[in-house]
Specification:
33% strand, globular, homodimer, alpha+beta, six-stranded antiparallel sheet
Chain lengths: 131, 131
Amino acid sequence: MELESIYTNDRAVGQERSLGVDWVVDARLCSAPALRDVATIDGVIAQILSLAALHPVSAPIVHRLPEGGIAMIVLLAEAHLAIHTFPDRGAATLNLYSAEWRTDFDWRSALGAWLGARDVHVRRILRGEFS
Amino acid sequence: MELESIYTNDRAVGQERSLGVDWVVDARLCSAPALRDVATIDGVIAQILSLAALHPVSAPIVHRLPEGGIAMIVLLAEAHLAIHTFPDRGAATLNLYSAEWRTDFDWRSALGAWLGARDVHVRRILRGEFS
């Protein structure tokens, strides 16, 4: 209910000025093995895209760091999704940007289930609108 | 000078909790032809990486939208850079994330020079620190 009213307000502010929404998500107290596992991180990407009903325009790019961290990014037509993991610190950072409004979802539950994250901080940033 | 003191403060807050910095940049009143030109946008990406002393781990992914907009993203070891352009609105959104501290640069002058942007809004978001 609360989320719905936020969306209604945003539209009222003037959708024509909007350049979309960024979700800036920091996850801590995650499972280190999950953060080191490319298949797990690839699954996180796939599940977020599915939940947000977003369609990639190419396969994800993956980079594995010497100390076990993973960086993965995927491009969409007017959006992108990126994750960077830090297994030695039990942390991951995620960015989801979409130029179009999308229904938000429960990042805390999702990252709890997928990465074992017990501390998830979500910031939702309106692009193109500065108040 | 002001930027330097911000950096000093961040470190004092506790660098160990930091998961890096996001620059969330919205540019308006840009040159529409520049926003439609893949070579120009590719040059913007290259120049930002050079200014920020960041090194990509793979070539940028590029996607051209039917109405002329361009989406481009590049992955770095512990960072990423993305740009989406909206020529019919004279706008572009940029995201630069780096897990390590980097010297900031003058986004307004740079995007003014490269894209003709006359309205640039920069937000600098500390990852992993919420006060």
